[in-house]
Amino acid sequence: MSLPVAAPPTPDAGVVRSRPRGSGRYRGGSPLVWFVALIVVAATLGPVLYAVLGGFRTNAQLAESPAALPDPWVLENYQRVLTSATFWRYAVNSTVIATVTTVVAVVFGLMAAYPLARYRFRWREPIYLVFVLGLLFPVTVAIIPLFIIITRQLHLGNTWWGVALPQAAFALPVTIIILRPFLMAIPNELEEAAVIDGASRIQVFWRIIVPLSGPGVVTVGVLAFVASWNAYLLPLLLLQGDMKTLPLGVADFSSQYSSDTAGVFAFTTLAMIPALIFFLAMQGRIVNGLQGAVKG
Amino acid sequence: MTTAAPGEASPATADAAGRAPARPAARRGRPGRRRASLRMGLEILFFVGPALILFGVFVVWPIARAVQFSLYRWKGFGPLVDFVGLQNYVSVLTNEVFTDAFRHNMTIVVLSILVQLPVGLGIALLLNRKMRFQGMLRTIIFVPYVLSEVIAGVVWLQLLQPEYGVIDTVLGAVGISGPEEGWLGTPEVALYTVFVVLTWKYLGLAVLLFLAGLQGVPDELVEAAQIDGASWWQVQRRVTVPLLGPTIRTWGFLSMIGAIQLFDMVWILTGGGPANSTTTMATFLITEGTKRYNYGIATAASVILFAVALVLAVLYQIFVLRRDVAQADAGSRRVR
Question: What is the ipTM of this complex?
Fold first, then answer.
């Protein structure tokens, strides 16, 4: 689990894994290697740890000696955030929006990838190309009209759906591009056997395709979830007040209470915990997904 | 939106369920074939329809509207009547704030390749060996990538606070004093400070991709080179790095596209300031659109942003892709 490459492969990752494991061409770590590793770790974790520890200090402590450990440790900052209704409200919004985004992107993406992978019809490649071209369009390009369409025409401004649906739409290209080769790799015989036994296409899809595409589904699901969880631009334009997500909350808190550094650290730390836990649990998938997305 | 799916579902489901067993036979007769192909069409529609509708409504339509808006002078009220042709494009392209923003984007693109590529590659090569804690190291290096740019930005904003921030304190302890207005408050260094924070956030992705690419370098090649007496350095330079070409190219592509769209981090750290020294094309269009309600200008800028990304992507595919493949070939041949 800790080694990304050891996780079950995406179709592309198979190439990577074909070689038996063994990066032991130069064994062990020389002092230089350890030194570099140490610097990298310190530089990477330093800011994160500083924020975590900063949350345990008072503003007076932070002002007096910025680079010291908490002394004494205070829990008040964290308590204040954890007992504030807005923090939980934002956390719920983030969770719901990310979940809806993920479910819609994965369900629609998997459904679309199925005929694009396994049917032969004239419009197959053109339709696939439409989705592939979607990769070239970041949300930024469409953001102004998207804002106007969602708030004025669809009346979804300041709602969970108003953010989740466009996010899912923009996640579709990656989802379909990763899933299509996955579905192509499922042996034809399984499907044929099911059809001979009288299964309909829908049944084949549910009973055979969906279960067999599990690893791919998890990969694209994780990508969609993380992207939604971290999203800033679209929520920034569409959500106000109680509907805000955690990134918006963090940004607001840091500008409203900019003098309360310890409070900002506590709020930020608590906001990053869900993403970190999710990442640790899904690490292999994220890495695989990125590699898959990269090579697809 | 979602109601479309069940609406389409019912005919296809009924049809497919009812006639599925007859399917092989249906292939023979003419009317049967037509019915079969009709059914296949319905099935395809059922599966692809929802995704196409979602994509159409939230991706294609807004982009089409962006192109449309960009041809009008429009403040967001009333109908689109004030058609101005390409005037918005002219005014964006002659606006110094936008051309500066474009330069800032390109600066980040170039700096990423000049700094993150060698540093990331170096770290990956050093870590690509059997050593304890390697799995843990990879996890740690990847942590910043998982955090949202907002969270990373807010943390760095605190670290970089002028005078009282921990970075200025530490630097002060070794006798270096930061700029008076702070690293983010001084126009001359603000963009580079943003770049440092971006590097902190995205270096992990580079290292991780390179490490994964290194797993694909065949052991035999490395061993052969070692037997021929190649030093560690020679093996890396002549064998490993050339074979890493495709991975490096892919990373470069991702990094470039990301740098062109850069928004979140800048918005949090500087908001484009001080004195527009860190604007990007994206912050420009958001400012024009959401603060000044110049929708025509904003969408013209977004179309230009897309055009820039597209041109760079195509150029990248044409030039870099070819050279990398050639290098990889040459590298592997030399060893054999």
Answer: 0.81
Percent of chain B predicted with pLDDT > 90 = 38
**A201 vs chain B: nearest CA distance in angstroms?**
7
Q: For residues A232 and A247, what is the distance between their CA atoms, to the nearest angstrom?
A: 6
From CA A41, how far away is CA A180, in angstroms rounded?
Answer: 37
Measured between CA atoms, the residue of chain B closest to residue A274 is B147
Per residue in A58-111, pLDDT (tens digit) is 888 888 777 788 888 888 889 888 988 889 999 999 999 999 999 999 999 999
How many whole angstroms from its chain centre is CA A75?
30
Q: Is the per-residue pLDDT at B8 higher than 50? A: no
For residues B124-136, give the mean pLDDT: 79
| Model confidence pLDDT, tens digit, residues B83-93 | 888 999 999 99
Instruction: Report the distance separating Cα B299 and Cα A52, nearest Å.
Output: 40
From the CA of A130, how many Å to the nearest CA of chain B? 9
Query: Chain B: nearest CA to A83, how far in angstroms?
Result: 20
Residue in A with minimal Cα distance to B255: A294
Determine the residue of chain A that is closest to B209 in CA distance: A291
SS3 B94: coil
The DSSP 8-state label assigned to residue A82 in this structure reads: H
A143 and B286 within 8 Å at the Cβ level: the answer is yes
Q: Do B13 and A247 touch (CB under 8 A)?
A: no
Which residue of B39, B132, B155, B232 to mutate against A (max A Cβ within 10 Å)?
A: B155
Which CATH superfamily, name and number, covers A85-295?
MetI-like (1.10.3720.10)
Q: Give dist(CA B101, CA B279) in Å, integer.
A: 5
Mean pLDDT, range A13-21, rounded to an integer: 39
Residue B74 to chain A, least CA–CA distance (Å) = 12
Domains of chain A, by residue range, sit at 29-74, 85-295
The residues spanned by each domain of chain B are 4-69, 87-335
- pLDDT at site B327: 55
Q: Which of A60-69, B15-24, B304-313 has the highest mean pLDDT?
A: B304-313
Q: Which residues of A touch B57 (CB under 8 A)?
A: 149, 165, 169
- Count residue pairs from A and B with Cβ separation < 8 A: 309
Say how far apart CA A221 and CA A172 lie, in whole Å: 11
Cα pseudo-dihedral B293, B295, B297, B301, rounded to 10: 120
Name the amino acid, one letter, at B96.
E
Residue of B nearest to A259 (CA): B158
Q: How far apart are CA B31 and CA B47, in angstroms?
A: 24
Average pLDDT over residues B288-301: 90
Give domain B87-335's CATH superfamily: MetI-like (1.10.3720.10)
- Among A116, A144, A237, select the one facing B295 at the smallest CB separation: A144
